[in-house]
Amino acid sequence: MAISNLSSGFRPGVCTSTTRPTAPYEGQMIYETDTDKMYVYNGSAWRYMLTPQSLEPGIYSDISSTQTFTGFTKGNATVVSKYAQVGKLVHFWGMVTVGSTSSMSGPLDVALPVTADGNIVTNNSACSFYNGSTLYWGMALHISLGSIRLVAMNSSSTYAYNTDITATIPFTWATNTYFYWNHTYQAA
Asked: Considering 2, 28, 92, 163, which has the largest number of Cβ atoms within 10 A of its Cβ?
């Protein structure tokens, strides 16, 4: 059979992430219909293959409805959370506008969409907090392979330092206050 011609093209094995071949061979390729990803078996593990769609700028997966937090109860907050992954590089951002039934108890942890690499993580990501009149800056710090902690920059002493978010830090949280993060890291 020809690999490709004008009337048909190469078609790898088609399955789902739960029905992958149980005895794959080195070089075997599959397309998962539930994840829309292609994989190739390297003799010991399935490796994700980049697809043209994953390289297009602006292609972000929307995880707003499933985004989880520790130290913050969503209630009726407006959550916008998206990520894009190219190879092992993950860009993850989000913005939460606090609603009337939301509450902040802190520390404020945000679940990552893709598990981070334990050897290579970054702590150069930014976050901000806005109370309607003042914008406060902070950082997004890796606290585990599955989450980041948003912290405020406290400059009340000689040197600036990180401070955990609470119900009153960096301000008393109320309806229409918000927090935002912008984070890039390497996936496991």
From this structure: 92
**Residue 94 parent element (H or E):** strand 89-97
pLDDT tens by residue, 121-159: 665 688 999 999 999 999 999 889 999 999 998 877 787
Contacts of 170 (CB under 8 A, 6+ apart): 129, 131, 136, 138, 152, 163
- The two structure tokens encoding residue 70: 């520790």
CA separation, residue 53 to residues 8, 36, 57 (Å): 21, 10, 9
What tokens does 149 get? 């902690």
Instruction: Round the average pLDDT of the chain to a whole number and report it.
Output: 87
Give the span between the Cα atoms of 9 and 104, in whole angstroms.
54
- E strand segments, 16-60: 29-32, 37-41, 46-49
Q: How far apart are CA 18 and CA 33, in angstroms?
A: 10
If you ran DSSP here, which 8-state letter would residue 24 be given?
-
Cβ(108)–Cβ(73) under 8 Å? no
Q: Which of 90, 86, 93, 98 is nearest to 50 (CA)?
A: 86
pLDDT tens figures, 41-62: 888 888 877 654 444 555 789 9
